[in-house]
Amino acid sequence: MSTISVSELNKKPAKQWLKSAGKDDLVITSKGRPIAVLLRVASASVESTRALVRSVRALQAQNALQQAAVADGTAGFSKSDVDAEIAAARRQRRLEAACRKANKLGRVSADMRDWEKLNEAEED
After folding, report:
1. How far apart are CA 69 and CA 64, in angstroms?
2. CATH 3.90.1570: does it fit domain 1-40?
3. 33 close to 39: Cβ distance less than 8 angstroms
């Protein structure tokens, strides 16, 4: 696989860097770090190649999420654990929105605990 920097890419004519890449893919770097890969594709396979790249990106994102879940201890959550976390986050957002609204309207000097007590009373 050939490598070329962004500055070299700007300086060289396209024919020259395509020739230097040969039949390999071309890794484009910026400040020494890879930022893109230029792939050779046949004109008939452009869409299928793009679909494959999107699939790989989705798999990479899924892998990153799984690693984050392992790191923060949520990998072993059951469906009910996930549902409980979602419900708690939504309840917290509603409480925060209610506090902001009450404070904005000047009706209450709202304390989050007061809103939580009010919310618990409404749920019972």
Report:
1. 9
2. no
3. no
